[in-house]
């Protein structure tokens, strides 16, 4: 368990968050722990909502170096070292539990952070069965071990603190960083609105937009797709996968949502040979500049460099360069957009 001196030291580091509030957890009269030299957070994935809004701001103000570890991945050899303060955020599995237990005497401490009611099986009864099963396996099943080994419990709400008062939990303040308090100064919205018949284009475009997102930190992507498409695209940064809509809903959606850049790749194929240029009007309705494959039906319809851009149909590098260049050129986007919207309104 933590020593009183240890808790005072960490509480001092967090004073800018908590003011004169209670320290980070209960003091313990047990043998001294090593000084805290680093904080290791075990969480699911690279980022979580509660991590960004609550846990990471709290930890960052302590001044300790921070290591985020994905609890879904096997613990790397030597991942924990003497002086680590380990914070388990929501989920724990047996492999990580064994790793923590093996180094427990050398750790500065072990903390469990709970942002939902994860310790009460009855509270999970109304959830979807697959999700409830996950919570029982990765949270509830570890409650006895955590209560026996954790040095402190942190929670996200006063309701959790009241329910689990016997654990002397600390409520973390809602204190998001600057990036979560205001919209980005520049945000360019890119969309591909292909249907289920465009699966080959979705597969091809995934690599294109992965490169775009790696080169631009201000671009946001939306695509339409079913569950397999969601699995394929969901790990792409700043990307939303929208569920397919009936035409009436899609028509209303495009009339009320804006895009900056609309993509219309078209790969060779018998089915694609009969396509029309309706995407020109869909994107114009959204106020977007269209980037189109330089093949019929877009070749001969889109006026390249006037009301859209025509790009080599299968040249991924050319698409990446064109998207990145246009994303960074607001004046050119505006000129192309205005021409496309004017042409669409004229019904030529």
Structure explained in plain terms:
With 348 residues, the chain is α/β, with parallel strands linked by helices. The protein folds into 2 domains: 4-180; 183-346, Glycogen Phosphorylase B (Rossmann fold). The chain has 14 helices and 12 strands. The strands form 2 sheets. It has a 6-stranded parallel beta sheet with strand order 2-1-3-4-5-6. It has a 6-stranded parallel beta sheet with strand order 9-8-7-10-11-12, sandwiched between helices. α9 (199-215) links the parallel β7 and β8. α9 packs across α13 (316-327). It is elongated, with a radius of gyration of 26 Å.
Tell me the helix content: 25-40%
User: For the CA atoms, what is the radius of gyration?
Assistant: 26 Å
Total of domains: 2
Oligomer: single chain
Separation, N- and C-terminal Cα atoms: 77 Å
Q: For the report, how would you describe the main beta sheet?
A: 6 strands, parallel
Supply the helix-strand structural class. alpha/beta
Give average pLDDT, whole number. 87
Query: What is the global morphology?
Result: elongated
What's the count of strands?
12
Listing every helix as H and every strand as E from the N terminus to the C terminus, the arrangement reads HHEHEEHEHHEHEHEHEHEHEHEEHH
Number of helices: 14
The main sheet orders its strands as: 2-1-3-4-5-6
Please mark out the parts with pLDDT under 50 across 5 or more consecutive residues, or reply none. 1-9, 11-29
Quote the beta fraction. 15-25%
